[in-house]
């Protein structure tokens, strides 16, 4: 338990970036609805590049004192703005470019790339740990390498995005002279905004539990070694990444609502048993199988998270309608999950977090039960 305060401080810095996400969702959503999805996606990835580069080059506290954490905080703010805008804009873009019969499948690749990015970072770290750098080199300066790589990949992504075509849905609005969106236009759709919040609560809490927090959980609670933690995390993320297009494809056949209800029911019933068993796992194989089982549940949400929300809104407010309430919900329930879990562990009540996560999923389940199936009733298929 001695590591908890240090881990908690890191979680606080991580959570700081989430504070900026709603602002990013609002600003980039408005930008995408007014000036195009492609432009917004290009700007957001360039900002992510800047944030990663600042983290990579910031000197240590011993070198520049208090300026070091200030610069890191500034970098997290930039990344928070970028990520806040990225989700709504990319969900809108992928949903709009897809044929209406395959929207779920195409939109699922949003989380394929998101999870794939996390997996790539772990692979890079594993290579550095095992074959390139010593433990001391990695601790003193080698940790910066993934951020340099991330910045370089962001530049490449920006170049690729600049060559993408704008979506037909946005172009039609633009040609009709109605492309500019008012920042207040989203408030004409209060029901849809609250639906996005309700849809997201359980899913985002679960996603950040099984990604960001899980690495610390495996070390601090399951007592796996660093190498075992890295391998289990990488393997479970690979499973999660492969599940996304399958569930997306399935949603195009059976509907979005059935998958969401499946996530809600299974998550409510099995989160506490899974996490309790995982805490007492006897080795890395058992830990991997339990986390993979959790991803079988959570992927029913993540795979169609973007398309369900995009199908709720008309073209002129779609990116804002998806991005702003989503980012706000993630800031409250996603970005704080790790911090809450570590705090509960530090006071000797780790198991309480399992019930908190179950409660979040149960809240979303109620929303899933009463919402319409957006596959059958999508704003994207109506005459606007």
TrEMBL record:
User: Can the keyword Transmembrane helix be found in this entry's annotation?
Assistant: yes
The Major facilitator superfamily (MFS) profile domain is annotated at 1-376
Membrane topology term reads: Multi-pass membrane protein
Pfam family of the protein (one): Sugar_tr
Tell me which GO cellular component terms the UniProt record holds: plasma membrane
Transmembrane segments in this chain: where?
6-28, 40-58, 64-84, 105-129, 141-160, 193-211, 231-250, 259-276, 288-308, 320-341, 353-371
Keywords assigned: Cell membrane, Membrane, Symport, Transmembrane, Transmembrane helix, Transport
Q: Where in the cell is it found?
A: Cell membrane
Gene Ontology MF terms in the entry:
symporter activity
Name the InterPro entries for this protein: H+-coupled_symporters, MFS_dom, MFS_sugar_transport-like, MFS_trans_sf, Sugar_transporter_CS
Which PANTHER family did the record assign? ALPHA-KETOGLUTARATE PERMEASE
This chain belongs to the protein called MFS transporter
The record lists the organism as Paraburkholderia tagetis
Which lineage ranks, top first, belong to the organism behind this chain? Bacteria, Pseudomonadati, Pseudomonadota, Betaproteobacteria, Burkholderiales
């Amino acid at each position: 338990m001695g590591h908890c305060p240090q881990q908690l401080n890191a979680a606080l810095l991580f959570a700081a970036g989430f504070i900026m996400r709603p602002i990013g969702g609002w600003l980039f959503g408005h930008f995408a609805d007014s000036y195009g999805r492609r432009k917004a996606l290009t700007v957001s990835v360039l900002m992510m590049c800047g944030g990663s580069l600042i983290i990579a080059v910031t000197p240590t506290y011993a070198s520049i004192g208090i300026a070091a954490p200030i610069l890191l905080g500034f970098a997290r703010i930039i990344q928070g703005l970028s990520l806040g805008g990225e989700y709504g804009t990319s969900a809108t873009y992928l949903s709009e470019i897809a044929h209406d019969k395959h929207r779920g499948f195409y939109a699922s690749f949003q989380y394929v790339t998101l999870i794939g990015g996390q997996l790539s970072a772990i692979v890079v770290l594993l290579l550095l740990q095992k074959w390139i750098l010593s433990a001391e080199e990695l601790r003193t300066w080698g940790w910066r390498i993934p951020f340099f790589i991330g910045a370089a990949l962001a530049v490449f992504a920006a170049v690729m995005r600049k060559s993408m075509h704008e979506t037909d849905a946005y172009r039609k609005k633009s040609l009709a002279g109605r492309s500019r969106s008012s920042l207040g236009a989203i408030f004409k759709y209060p029901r849809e905004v609250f639906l996005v919040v309700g849809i997201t609560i359980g899913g985002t809490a679960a996603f950040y539990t099984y990604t960001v927090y899980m690495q610390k959980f495996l070390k601090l609670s399951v007592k796996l070694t660093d190498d075992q933690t890295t391998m289990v995390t990488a393997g479970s993320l690979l499973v999660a990444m492969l599940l996304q297009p399958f569930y997306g494809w399935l949603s195009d056949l059976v509907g979005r609502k059935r998958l969401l209800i499946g996530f809600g029911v299974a998550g409510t019933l099995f989160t506490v048993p899974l996490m309790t068993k995982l805490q007492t796992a006897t080795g890395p194989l058992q830990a991997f199988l339990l986390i993979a089982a959790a991803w079988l549940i959570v992927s029913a949400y993540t795979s169609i998270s973007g398309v369900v929300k995009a199908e709720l809104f008309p073209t002129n407010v779609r990116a804002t309608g998806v991005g702003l309430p989503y980012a706000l919900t993630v800031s409250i329930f996603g970005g704080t999950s790790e911090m809450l879990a570590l705090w509960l562990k530090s006071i000797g009540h780790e198991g309480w977090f399992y019930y908190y996560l179950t409660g979040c999923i149960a809240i979303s389940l109620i929303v899933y039960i009463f919402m319409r199936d957006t596959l059958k009733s999508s704003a994207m298929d109506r005459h606007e």
